Amino acid sequence: MKKWQWALVSLVGVGMIVSQYLDFIASPPEAQMGNVVRIMYFHVASAVVAFTAFGVTALFGIIFLIRKKWLWDQIARGSAEIGLVYTTFVLISGSIWGDAVWNTWWTWDPTLTTTLILWFLYLAYPLLRASITDRERAAKVASVFGFIAVIDVPLIHQSVTWWRGIHPNVITAQGFNMPPSMVVALLFSFVVFLGLYAVLLWINTQLVRDRDTLNDLREQARSVLAKYDERIGS
Amino acid sequence: MRFLRTLFAMVGKDLRIEWRTRQLFISSLSFALLLVFLMGLVLETGAALASFSEAGLLWLLIMMAGLFSLNRQDDKERYEGAIYGAYLAPVDRSVVFYARVISHLLFVLVMEVILVPLYSAVLGGAAQVSWAGFVLVLLLGTIGFVAVGAMLTSLSLTSSLREILMPLMLFPLAVPLLLGTVEVTSATLTGGNGAVIWWAVIAAYDVLFLVLPGLLYDFIAEV
Q1: Would you call A132 and B160 a contact, using CB atoms and an 8 Å cutoff?
Q2: B119: CB partners within 8 A, 6+ apart
Q3: For an interface test with A, which of B209, B216, B217, B223 has the most A Cβ atoms less than 10 Å from its Cβ?
Q4: Are residues B155 and A128, on separate chains, in Cβ contact within 8 Å?
Q5: What is the pLDDT of residues B13-24, one digit of tens each?
Q6: How far off is chain B from A178, nearest CA to CA, in Å?
Q7: How far apart are CA A54 and CA A105, in angstroms?
Q8: Which H/E stretch holds residue B4?
Q9: Contact assessment for residue B145 and residue B208, using Cβ atoms and an 8 Å cutoff
Q10: Phi and psi for A30 in degrees, rounded to 5?
Q11: What is the SS3 string spanning B109-178?
Q12: CB A35: neighbour CB atoms within 10 A?
């Protein structure tokens, strides 16, 4: 690792610690929810990371389709995996929060429904990739799928919103007026989480690239061995 | 002109193959009929369903049967790399996509002609149906579903997990369409015509998935 990379990682690490302080100590409990509100800092920031990650996947997928450079595809792939993990975090932390505040683990609120659909879509993404042996074809197919999924998300969200708008909705998320210290904690957690995302993306892209290189080497080794076998056999 | 000629030739090819064997049609239809029977069994026939549930089940049924036949049809094209032969046609490759949409659309529509009356006989409770709206939503909904399905079939063509991936990709992507068609169908079953907003969702979805794959098809059709 280069010096600036160490610097970035340490910066994010320190930021994480500061963020914990802001989330758990410096910010006040909420009037109605009490300390439960502290889930928000993790939950909302994870959601920001998840949506960013999928946006990055779609963007770099399209760049790959146009420019045909492997690095763009590797970034898209690395980002999709992180996005899936963070969407899972969002759903789990949201459920815990929902149970504490709304007294139910799950409700068909538009945002929840959209997130769940998104989770399913990005569960399909790595499966699609892994189940296609031709690497170039897998990359193209996944790029197209990632792009379509992101295009479809606004339509999904809008339709789910109208759907719930027509039916009676027992539980709604109330907007809350936040004191400044909470806003600071929330915004800070956004920044730190996005920093963490950048670090993870960079590491994961390298990992993905190493995996590709390893596969290439394996292919080469296999063909060399096959030639060797032929010579021994003859 | 050449685009259209190739398109008709490919649709004709699909229909001819299907007409000679009738394999796909019979197997998908029997699967759908089995589903109707099972739904009737577990939902206790005789008790009328609420119009929303009736519409919802009908659309799930159509989509399941449609998915089943999409997967099968796809097998036919994978067999001995037949799809690569189609790509050799000297026209824009999106013709393969549109041909698949048209032939599959015809296929599912014919299936619906048999399926819908049977479904309403077993599970239907609707007394006053506004037919024009019902038929139109059936048509538009099927177009959207077939379009997104045909697109995903091409994506997962060489995937070894195709059977499980197809529903995993298709149903989440089709959520707007499903909600729209179920809302409108449910309204038409009680004599209404459905809210404009839902017609707009269905129309937007149809346009999106008829145009977008046409533009992106070149990327996935490259061998």
Answers
A1: yes
A2: B36, B58, B61
A3: B216
A4: yes
A5: 888 888 888 888
A6: 34
A7: 25
A8: helix B2-21
A9: no
A10: -80, 155
A11: HHHHHHHHHHHHHHCCCCCCCCHHHHHHHHHHHHHHHHHHHHHHHHHCCCCCCHHHHHHHHHHHHCHHHH
A12: 11
Q: What is the extent of the structural domain holding B63?
A: 2-221
Calpha distance B5→A135 (Å, rounded):
34
d(CA A205, CA B9): 45
Considering only alpha carbons, which residue of chain B is nearest residue A157?
A: B176
Contact B155/A at CB under 8 A: yes
Looking at per-residue confidence, does A149 or B85 come out higher?
A149
Nearest to A131 among B161, B173, B198 (CB): B161
Dist. CA B98–CA B11, nearest whole Å: 9
* Residue B177 near residue B145 (C-beta atoms within 8 A): yes
Look up the pTM and report it: 0.83
Residues in B closer than 8 angstroms to A123, CB to CB, are: 168
Q: What is the largest distance, in Å, between two alpha-carbon atoms of chain B?
A: 57
Half-sphere exposure of B211 toward its Cβ, with a 13 Å CA cutoff?
A: 7
* Beta carbons of B169 and A128 less than 8 Å apart: yes
Select the residue from A162, A164, A166 to test the B interface by mutation, using most B Cβ atoms within 10 A. A162
C-alpha span between B73 and B20 (Å, rounded) = 14
Give the pLDDT confidence of A170-200 residue by residue, as tens digits: 444 444 456 777 777 888 888 889 989 998 9
A116 Cβ contact list (under 8 Å, min separation 6): A91
pLDDT digits (tens, 9 = 90+) for B203-222: 999 999 999 888 888 887 76
State the Cα angle at A161 between A160 and A166, rounded to 5°: 100
pLDDT score at B106: 92
Please say whether the beta carbons of A128 and B173 come within 8 A: no
Q: Is the ipTM of this complex over 0.90?
A: no
